[in-house]
Design goal:
The structure holds two protein chains of two kinds.
Chain A lengths: L12 H6 L3 H30 L9 H35 L8 H24 L21 H30 L12 H33 L10 H36 L6 H14 L15 H27 L10 H24 L1 H7 L3 H31 L5 H24 L16 H31 L31 E2 L5 E2 L30 H19 L7 H27 L20 H30 L12 H26 L3 H31 L8 H32 L9 H26 L1
Helix pairs in contact in A: 2-3, 2-4, 2-14, 3-7, 3-12, 4-5, 4-15, 5-6, 5-15, 5-17, 6-7, 6-8, 6-17, 7-10, 7-12, 8-9, 9-10, 10-12, 10-13, 12-13, 13-14, 15-16, 17-20, 17-21, 18-19, 18-21, 19-20, 20-21
Chain B lengths: L3 H34 L26 H30 L6 E8 L2 E5 L5 E2 L2 E4 L3 E8 L4 E5 L4 E5 L5 E6 L4 E7 L11 E7 L1 H9 L19
Parallel strand pairs in B: 1-5, 4-10
Antiparallel strand pairs in B: 1-2, 2-3, 5-8, 6-7, 6-9, 9-10
Helix pairs in contact in B: 1-2
Classes of the chains: A mainly alpha, B alpha+beta.
The structure holds protoporphyrin IX containing FE and copper (II) ion (2 copies).
Amino acid sequence: MSEDHQIPPTSSISRWLFTTNHKDVGILYLVTSLYFLFLSGTLALLLRTQLAVPNNTFLSSAAYNQAFTTHGLIMVLWFLSPFAFSFANYIVPLQIGARDLAFPRINALSYWLYLFSGIMLLVSFFVGPADGGWTVYAPLNTARYSPNIGLNLTAGALVLFIVSITISSVNFITTILKMRAPGMKLMQMPMFTWSILITVFMMLYAFPSFLAGVSMLMVDRTLGTMYFSAPEGGSLLWDHVFWFFGHPEVYIVLFPAIGAVGDMIPSFTRRPLYGRKYIILGLIIAAVVSFMVWGHHMFVTGYDPLVAKIFTLTTIAVSLPFDVIVVAFIESLVRAKIKLKTPALFALGSIMLFIIGGVTGVFLGSVAIDHHLRGTYWVVAHFHYVMVGGGAVALIGALYYWFPKITGRMYKESLGKLHFALSFIGFNLLYFPMFINYDMPRRVVTYAEQAWAFNNFLATIGAFVFGLAQLLLLYNLFTSMRSGAPAGSNPWNAFTLEWATTSPPPDYNFEETPRVNSDGTVSLPKLTSFANGGTPSGYSAPHGLPHQSHLSPFPIILSALAFFALFGIVSLTFIPSASFSAGIVYLWIFFAALIMGGFAIYGFAREKFVAPEDETLEGWPFKNIGRMKMGIWTFMASEVIFFGVFIGAFLFIRAGTAEWPAIDTIFKIQHGAINTFILLTSSFTAVMAVVFSKKSSKGGVAASLALTLFLALWFLYNKATEWQELFHEGFTLSASPISSTYYITTGAHGAHVLGGIVALAVIIGGVLKGRYLGHDHGTVEYFGIYWHFVDIVWIFLFPLFYLL
Amino acid sequence: MVSNTSEIFIGLFNQFWFLGVLVSIVVLGLMTYLMLRFRDQGAKTPDPEDAPMLGKIPEDRGKIKTVAISLTLSSLILALLLGGTFGAIDAINNPPQGTLNVEVTGFQWGWKFKYPNNYQDTVMTVPKDEVVIVKIHSDDVFHSFGILEFKIKKDALNGRVNTIWFVARDAGEYNIVCYEFCGLGHTFMRTKLIVMEPNEFQDWYSKLKPGEIQHAPVQQGGQQP
Ligand code: HEM
Ligand SMILES: [Cu+2]
Ligand SMILES: [Cu+2]
């Protein structure tokens, strides 16, 4: 398929199923995320209908709980970030003058994993939804209190989703850092690209924590471990793990919106953004500090008062960079020529709502005030002002802003303005009354207090105004897509590079790669054939480079198989022992998907897919590191957090356990020491393999890799005997929090060893056929990086479990 | 004020509210003014000299001075609020010698109260003008024990005992509410706090028999509409 350089027309189904082009993937993200917006918005309207009057019985408790849980999960995870990333996909490569993302197939894979994770969430919604809120607090989330399969499927959906996010982060980091137009310095990147760069870094470090948490939840629910059910870990462990992810997550959904506003302001004020440097610096500082404020979600859990004060301090401190950002946006208006077009209205309106969200957040950052406001409608109002007001509203502005680029046509301005007015009024009518109702507990299905009735009623009216107004958006975009006035290449007279090509851009984005000169001027590519809204077709490669491939069937196949494998195994855990035959079916689904997945991965690896590396591109400061290597290193960073959280959970549980077994009683030092020795030796043989590979010594590589393989197998063998002994002594998974942490932490490590073994087998096979030698030594080297990481993790685990 | 805790909360909240509303009005007002003042009125508004154009990445503009001024201003405001917060939280966290200790246990879905004489109840009864210390705990999942009118709450966790304290100022009935989602019956995990005159309370308390349960035992499972 990849030999075929002609990308099928947009009317062809196979284009949309197999495309790897960043613009197509962007459109897929856009359509899917909007679908989730409207779905989840409908749930929100049900919630508001129920709350319109006191003592209402429109929804039952169960239905209400399921509705707000699914609403929250979808809005935060399946709508906001993917919506932002539809623009990141479409616009970021254009803004930096690239022809695609660094790993186009991985990008398509991210999308399909996202879609299938969403499908799994919807399946769970129909078989018995999760109903513990999007924060799924422990131990309500354990099998004992929530014995529904829905939560297992939701956890499965989250795993798929997080994998999608992680590989997409790696992709964007590599692209932005290594594939900028020649001469484009980091500080010259547009604001939206900057915000995406910072966002994906946050994603890379925050989501592994969530993955670790969800994994612990999964094993608790299926294998009977005790992370969240025993008092030593339990509620507080989940709180820490969840919010360590959760606070950065709210910035993750917000930052792309700030970036988009930062690009819209210059276009509509006709002046450069004020204090651009400081905005970027502010975003970076806020991103870093966002990992140090999670405790403000735990102010009333009763932890140490000094710690609470420190978290108050960090939380209040993190409002300062936002202060700088907002002030810079406002300064940008001074002596400008402000054109209040629809995108501008949404952008400026969003800043206003964000200001209110920020001010009310300072209240919640105060540990003393939080002793009343925690868990009330004040919180609901606050986070909607930030996430919907600051986030979604700005991104809707971005949709109007980039719509002409994507479709080549203009939307209808008057309808757009009406949409803004209704949204803005509806929004405030919906959420402002919730501040006044700050006594009312959230997540309640109804209330008897007459004092809260009026404000709730106003909010419900606001909800319908706000919700129905969004239909105008759909109508406007749908009709304009076909019949709007042709937009031309640069309708807003903007300066960023996405406007330097036709609307919509050709498959390869630019006729020639744009160049940024040292005086800040840009040598623009010429605009040929398809100016003014025509749909480009045909293919032309930049001179001197091989043709870029745009199609691959593997992303969708792999994602579907991952979906079925996970679906099978998750469902299997919930078959009552009686229905044995159903269990067999799920088992078959699991194994079939697994085996086919193995073939698909092999096919993916062997497919001839060309994504040329253009040496002229700007990649400071990573210019001399290959794309693939950069990707692997970036990915390893997320693995560090993943294991860090497992180790952190272990330490947390250990600190809460009164009696820890003495050294060398349960965990025999002898076992651990031998395995440490084995792994260290295997690191050495892995290095040897790289050296031989560079020297093109086939025998040397094969021998060192085989030795590594042997050592890895030996390690697992030892591990298995040790586990067997422990099991015999009654030290089972569910024996105690000690055994739970031991098996799961070392088990996660063992799984990584197993992954290494599979990779080794494949690589050795290749080496014997004469591959991966000399110039092609990269693969062996990437394996080496991974293998060292696995060894280093063990260097931490060994003393933690065996020696201390 | 109905209790010392609501007094602390409302005092601090008003500080925040005053400054928050002030800042919002100034900033939003300024923004609206600028939007109107510098809106594009065709030929009347001159084209800015530094208007961005395709083909040139604009020079950075913006003075560190503006950033510094706005940062200083907001730091001052935040420092003020921080001071108030630290004062208030110390008061909330450090109970004086208590006269009455009540143990409260949250469960799916209700509250149990236990008095020093082992008397148990599903409604909380305390005297006014006395320091009441509440030890909070959960039998099962995560709950949060809050007294709505007293504006104070703390989480009820399994495996840990949390403490709040208060002095009620007015006799009467108040609402005890669960503020952390805890499952199907969460909405209805409510009960009453009854504040009595001290002598009335003494009278009531001395007549109790240890182990006795006065109010109806809580129905497990909570009500649903
Ligand atoms: C981009 C849009 C939105 C986002 C990101 C968002 C996010 C959230 C989140 C995270 C929750 C918490 C769910 C939970 O407690 O587990 C929530 C709850 C809720 N949202 Fe939204 N929401 C959005 C739009 C809306 C709209 C348009 C409405 C009204 C029509 C709405 C009404 C509600 C209500 C009533 C709750 C339940 C509050 C509670 O019982 O605690 N939301 N939303
Ligand atoms: Cu937070
Ligand atoms: Cu509750």
